[in-house]
Amino acid sequence: MTTSRSAGPGRLPHVTPKTPFEAVVAEHGATVLRVCRAVLGPADADDAWSETFLAALKAYPRLPADANVEAWLVTIAHRKAIDVTRAAARRAVPVADVPEPPAAGPADGRDIDLAGALAALPRRQREAVAYHYLAGLPYQDVAAITGGSTDAARRAAADGIARLRKTYPGVVIPDGENS
Asked: 3-state SS string over 40-81?
């Protein structure tokens, strides 16, 4: 009996091994959550985080092996944040009911203060600060995610940090970054 395969069983030549998705979530989950919290605030961040990883799970098999996974996930999180913002704009907001405060954070309350300071920034500045300083993405990737030039992303981040230094005195960001 002859077979149509000349080589023994093994991996197909065009298939490369990838990191298991669970490891991707473990490695980048905290960064994506920080970005979601910075862009959306603590109330909507968990939902955006979950939606990000559900969408990423579906698309992960098609992601090239040499892709920047962190930038890819932050891009998905950015799009999910836009979806959450648009959905919130369409919903009626009851005025008489006070929303429940977010789950307890650190005892010193600094995360809540920082979230408020970030929320007060204009959208472009908030996104540039979140993607560059919290996610650690270079300005080129920030520009690709938010739309615009690298210089515009750098300017938005610088303006956002300058405003945060005034409104949130505890912020410590290194000066003179050239990423």
From this structure: HCHHHHHHHHHHHHHHHHHHHHHCCCCCCHHHHHHHHHHHHH
Looking up tokens 């600094």 gives 110
Residue 165: CB atoms within 10 Å = 14
Architecture of domain 21-90+112-167: Up-down Bundle (1.20)
Q: At what angle do helices 42-59 and 69-90 cross, to 10 degrees?
A: 130
- Residue 149's Cβ-count burial label (10 Å; 0-12, 13-18, 19+) is exposed
- Please name the residue that has the structure tokens 């203060």: 113
What is the residue extent of each domain of the chain?
21-90+112-167
Long-range contacts of 53-56 (CB under 8 A, 24+ apart): 53/25, 53/29, 55/80, 56/21, 56/24
Give me the residue label for tokens 């992960």. Answer: 60
Residue with tokens 């490369």: 16
Taking only the tens place, the pLDDT of each residue in 141-166 is 999 988 889 999 999 999 999 898 88
The whole-model pTM stands at 0.58
